Amino acid sequence: MTRRLPLSNWTLQFFEFFGGLAGLLGESIFHVLRGAVSYRHTIRQMADVGVGSLFVALITVGFSGAVACLYIAIQLVKLGQQGYVGGLVGKSLLLEIAPVITAVVVAARAGSSMAAELGSMVVTEQVDALRALATSPTQYLVVPRVLGTLIMLPLITVLAAGAGILGGYVAAVANGVSATLYWSSLQRMVEVSDAINGLAKTIPFALIISLIGCRQGLTTKGGAAGVGRATTSAVVFAMISIFVSDFFLSVLLQDANKLLGF
Length: 262
Hints:
The chain has helices spanning 6-33, 39-78, 85-123, 126-132, 137-174, 179-189, 192-218, 223-260. By secondary structure, it is mainly α.
């Protein structure tokens, strides 16, 4: 018997992981297109993802905007360029800070919850009971979570960006930038395309969070300890995927803006 090399083992796990995500996504799209969606469960997931994560996202992004503005304002005040503080803070929040930090918060809060809940159902054989009743686990468990995250993550991001802009305003005024100058530079420099690009990132982020959380939960093995491992891995994999995909999405959106003349 030949011993499997570590590299080949990692390669196999890599394709198994992403193959599982692609399979879940394909099945979810199939059930949505045929109208097999439980609206009651979807609304419950919207409440869990949205209401459960909103406060944490507002606090996190709000203070992130304040910290970003603190350093920007200090440097620009020294250079006598206070008129750029609000615009730079607004652009950084809409394009990067708000969508990425909000996605990380939702991954930690809702993604871990999905993995833990589905993992508990797997180890207690509730998922096997669904299959015995000829009910698709993807239709009953995955689709509501995917749709709930897709609907709520953009909304949370918009509110979180508003909190970040307000946090930046407080930090700017505290460092010698007038309120009028902050808001005028924000209106002058921030464009609609900035908000669109930031919100466009939330769609793949939502798919990453929900699909990884569901996939890790449905593949749980090893009882209660396995549920803990699935929960941890769901958060870690989702966060890594968010930051990696953010880079490629930023490049693609910049190229798209150039083609469209923005």
